[in-house]
Amino acid sequence: MTTIDNNNDPAPNPHATAEQVEAALKDTKLAQVLYHDWEAETYDEKWSISFDERCIDYARGRLDLILPDADLPFGRAMELGCGTGFFLLNLMQSGVADKGSVTDLSPGMVKVALRNAENLGLDVDGRVADAESIPYDDDTFDLVVGHAVLHHIPDVEKSLREVLRVLKPGGRFVFAGEPSTYGDFYARWMSRATWWATTNITKFGPLKAWRRPQEELDESSRAAALEAVVDIHTFSPEDLERLASSAGAVDVRSSSEELAAAMLGWPVRTFEAAVPPEKLGWGWARFAFGGWKRMTWFDDNVLRKIVPPEFFYNVLITGVKPEK
């Protein structure tokens, strides 16, 4: 059964006005709502999100990396900054939790996450929620998870205190997919270079057929401008450990992943956003996913042994609410 707990949640706003976008450039929380409402209905396609074996294995792999000896299943789990539900819904499908709750500052994302949960037949409720003021009672959840969410939150430590408040004593949080400071630098550099090269080369000759309509490119550029506002932080593993401990968590530990995989993945995703989707068939999909898997193997089996953790793209953090 899938439900919305709070009937007073605001409606999605997928078509922000120019005035709203201008205001959002100076108001990060408004930017979060506008950007993610704007992206909600196409977000799964943009980021190749699915709820099949491919993404189930990916989500479960993130949890197993940071929490290899978890006593499963957890009873009730919440995803903070759920987006379309990618992390929690795939974790639930892998047997990590029996019941779930999805929260996001974006009404559009909550709507899509609940629709995805309903289509999967999962027991999930949802609320529009500010991560710095989570609308659930103390001691509610056994597990809180998030993927690529902490870097959007203005006051990360305050949010982690809220996470600990809604966790039951002994409950655990797991956050994955947070951009490292070094990783964010090289990912953005490669993405910008790929976008510039693709959108300029496709202006000429037979390559024009590979160019998206200019209005779509302009919309992507406007979305990118908001994205620069909503991405507030980058972290080192030590940064997240310090924030989690300061918030009151115990048994805090971090990990990191994706270096070669990120160096392939970011140009691939940027190229996909810059060309018409009908130009990219199953052959491209096999190349992209197969290449990512090979680079991930290289990261896990070679680079992890010789490269310091802070140079990998994604940082993961976990901690526990102290027993009373």
Q: Poorly predicted ranges (pLDDT <50, ≥5 residues)?
A: none
Helix % is 40-55%
Strand ordering within the main sheet: 1-4-3-2-5-6-8-7
Mean of pLDDT:
92
Global morphology: globular
Number of helices: 12
Q: How are the secondary structure elements laid out?
A:
Layout: E1 2-4, H1 18-24, H2 28-39, H3 43-46, H4 53-66, E2 74-80, H5 86-93, E3 97-104, H6 107-120, E4 124-128, E5 141-147, H7 156-166, E6 167-179, H8 181-201, H9 214-230, H10 237-247, E7 250-257, H11 260-274, H12 282-306, E8 314-320
Parallel strand pairs: 1-4, 2-3, 2-5, 3-4, 5-6
Antiparallel strand pairs: 6-8, 7-8
Helix pairs in contact: 1-2, 2-9, 4-5, 7-10, 8-11, 11-12
Description:
With about 325 residues, the chain is of the alpha/beta class. Helices cover about 50% and strands about 20% of the residues. The chain has helices at about 20-25, 30-40, 45, 55-65, 85-95, 105-120, 155-165, 180-200, 215-230, 235-245, 260-275, 280-305; strands spanning about 1-5, 75-80, 95-105, 125-130, 140-145, 165-180, 250-255, 315-320. The chain has an eight-stranded mixed sheet, with helices on both faces. Helix 5 links the parallel strand 2 (about 75-80) and strand 3 (about 95-105). Helix 2 crosses helix 9, helix 8 packs parallel to helix 11 and helix 11 (about 260-275) packs antiparallel against helix 12. The longest helix is centred in the last third of the chain and has 25 residues, at about 280-305. The radius of gyration is 19 Å and the shape is globular. The chain starts with a strand and ends with a strand. The model has no long low-confidence stretch (mean pLDDT about 90).
